[in-house]
Specification:
single chain, 291 residues, Alpha-lytic protease prodomain-like, Alpha-Beta Plaits, 2 domains, three-stranded mixed β-sheet, elongated, monoatomic cation transmembrane transporter activity, membrane, transmembrane, Cation_efflux_TM
């Protein structure tokens, strides 16, 4: 299964799970008079929206390079991750505002019906299973976007756990438990949204590759015959891939053709690294005294 097929299949699974959960949680939450369960249902609905964002971004990122995007469209995935982060922050703000409003009027907080407990428990189980499935797929195909969406699902599972605890507290005589649970859910969603959004923003600002990827690049260049050294190694991320700029040092007495062939060997060796999308090499002649 390639990255595109894995993204589509796992996201469609998430779509159906979140569709069923969002409807069930909102309906049961309203009937059972649980603000926390309704908030969790809205959270599930935001996941449904994010799933469609992932599908659209995955389709766009597969487009071939063109005149306006010579390095491809891989950053659409990063942009999708940023959008997911912003979406989560917006959902958190709405849920938090509603919870604070309810906490300021404790007399108006109703006793939650027992049906909300079962709904919250089932939602917790479904979301945790969805997280484990999506994270496995994301790691297998090495997609930051899918991994980000998986952790989004994990934040849902954690929020459902808090919701369950709040509903139980309400049922056992602590009415503030339900809105407090809503407020905690809002904080958890905001934290996860901030982390995902900041990571995506960092990538969009040409963040360098991970240390282990840079070490792999250095090792590959050092192993090319004819390379006497290298410097000014620079990397930047493009979606899940890496662009490399590097200056290689060769014997100053080599012909232009030979120097070019060494640079081509470096290019081929680096392109063999799975995450390296493209390489720009500059050949620097060095005197014999430095050899």
């Amino acid at each position: 299964m390639d990255r595109h097929d894995a993204a589509i299949r796992s996201t469609l699974v998430s779509v159906w799970v979140n569709l069923v959960l969002s409807i069930a949680q909102v309906v049961i939450g309203l009937l059972a008079r649980s603000q926390a369960l309704v908030a969790d249902g809205i959270h599930s609905l935001s996941d449904l929206i994010s799933d469609f964002v992932v599908i659209a971004a995955n389709r766009q990122s597969r487009l071939a390079p063109d005149a306006n995007h010579p390095y491809g469209h891989y950053r659409f995935e990063t942009a999708a991750s940023l959008l997911l982060g912003v979406l989560m922050l917006g959902v958190a703000a709405g849920i938090g505002w509603t919870a604070v409003t309810r906490l300021l009027s404790p007399a108006s907080i109703p006793v939650v019906h027992a049906s909300a407990i079962w709904a919250a428990a089932l939602a917790l189980l479904a979301k945790e299973l969805l997280f484990r499935y999506m994270l496995t797929v994301g790691r297998r195909v090495d997609s930051k976007m899918l991994i980000a969406n998986a952790w989004h699902a994990r934040s849902d599972a954690a929020s459902s756990l808090v919701v369950l605890a709040g509903i139980l507290a309400n049922s056992f005589g602590f009415p503030l438990g339900d809105p407090i649970a809503s407020l905690i859910v809002a904080a958890m969603i905001a934290q996860m949204g901030g982390q995902i959004g900041w990571a995506a923003m960092s990538d969009l600002m040409d963040h360098s590759a991970a240390d282990e990827e840079i070490l792999a690049i250095e090792h590959a260049v050092a192993g090319v015959s004819g390379v006497r050294g290298f410097h000014d190694l620079r990397t930047r991320t493009v979606g899940d891939f890496v662009l490399v700029d590097i200056h290689i040092e060769v014997d100053e007495f080599l012909s232009v053709r030979d120097g070019h062939q060494i640079a081509e060997s470096v290019h081929r060796r680096l392109k063999a690294i799975p995450k390296v999308l493209d390489v720009m090499t500059h050949v620097d002649p060095v005197p014999a005294a430095r050899l």
